[in-house]
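Quick entry between incubations.
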Amino acid sequence: MRRIKVTVDGKTHEHEVEPRLLLIHYLREVLGIGGAHSGCDTSNCGACTILMNGESVKSCTVLAVQADGEDIMTVQGLAKNGEWHPVQTAFHEAHGLQCGYCTPGMIMATISLLKEKPNPSEEEIREGLEGNLCRCTGYENIVKAVKQAAGSPVS
Amino acid sequence: MIPLKFDYEVAESAQHAVELLGQHGDEAKLLAGGHSLLPIMKLRLAAPTVLIDIGRLNDLNYVREDGDKLAIGAMTRHTDVEHSDLVKSECGILAYTAGLVGDPQVRHRGTIGGSLAHGDAASDLPGVFLALDAEFKITGSGGDRTIAAADFFEDYLMTALAPDEILTEVRVPKLNGAGWSYRKFNRRAQDWAVVGVGAILERSNGSISSARIGFTNMASVPVRASATEQALSGASVDSIAEAAESAADGTSPSSDIAASSEFRQHLARVLTKRALDEALSR
Ligand SMILES: Cc1cc2nc3c(=O)[nH]c(=O)nc-3n(C[C@H](O)[C@H](O)[C@H](O)COP(=O)(O)OP(=O)(O)OC[C@H]3O[C@@H](n4cnc5c(N)ncnc54)[C@H](O)[C@@H]3O)c2cc1C
Ligand code: FES
Ligand code: FES
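Done. Structure below.
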């Protein structure tokens, strides 16, 4: 067992964990953050995407011990004082979700993308989200949601 | 999917990592970004009993100018290479290719050193480092040594790294205006290359003075397109199409679900032509 101290959604947690515990399982099972989804378990689908020090990472491919001392943000930490994050609002308004399974990962990947490229072209949006799969194939509206969040006109 | 149990150690320095490797023997593995190692541990295709985390060695994350070369720390992540102004201006092929690895999430964790040390010929960067005639700096219990990329890759997932050695730095020449291109053929976004070709072209007075071409996924290790390179040395720029015809000579790539061996050879010829044409125009 190893002691880790991780800041998740602004709150610091300390736990003894097995080194082989994956970060996604730490978030879901130890901290009870069900908003971080596990889709494929094989680093492909992006449903488990969270921000680690502000950058998108797949939490099924990170050990909880690797997150020791780091700053993690999940979809559950985005809303401030009951107000959604602009990317959440954009996904809601542009119908960027159908079943919603991929949505937490899509939203976190979008936040990371917009930080690196505040005004992405459509091609840059599609490439920027290539690590996230939508089983409902709702990509058109997902791209629209990202455009809306970036403040660019949505066609 | 959960890996088998292992012990976890954090390395405080490259030297410390070497000491820990020495203490724990062959069953220990270094953990860099974890984006090759953890997936295979989750599938239980690998089961090291000790992981030595070098992910916190920030002093191995750098890009520096060193005369006519660039020195890049082994822990530099793909995203750092992709966005480095120095790499973009002095060795564009490397920044471009690093930006094609996996997807943004993978590039936020995966490292240059991990990509090379893993020794997978389907990875995009090894063939490019081979075409660049890169040098790798390695630290072990006996001190430092430097090895040429051509001597580093030994077989599928096998490199010249001894069990108690760590790759600390890669050095690549500045391209100084040489044309370059990397062409990756894959079936879907985020996929690995079925075949990839990296090309670097030096020109003088309207002819080609040298061509260096490295392949991704054409053998169990990254390989050069030697016949095409020879055909182009000192040749006119009009000879590219003909020279590319020999790109697959001497290769026997594997057949798998993505492509037959023959199709890989076909891709190698076509992509080599496209890469050389693009390199010429850059
Ligand atoms: C979904 C997905 C898609 C991907 N797509 C691509 C792709 O399209 N193209 C591509 O090229 N790669 C791809 N990758 C792999 C990615 O590039 C990895 O980041 C990289 O191959 C390994 O780097 P790492 O830092 O994660 O290494 P790790 O997984 O931490 O380590 C890999 C191996 O190298 C050893 N090692 C690591 N660093 C050192 C060092 N400094 N010295 C000695 N040994 C060391 C480790 O012990 C281990 O055996 C993909 C990965 C994933 C998960
Ligand atoms: S659950 Fe992590 S990428 Fe699918
Ligand atoms: S909305 Fe159903 S998986 Fe994307």
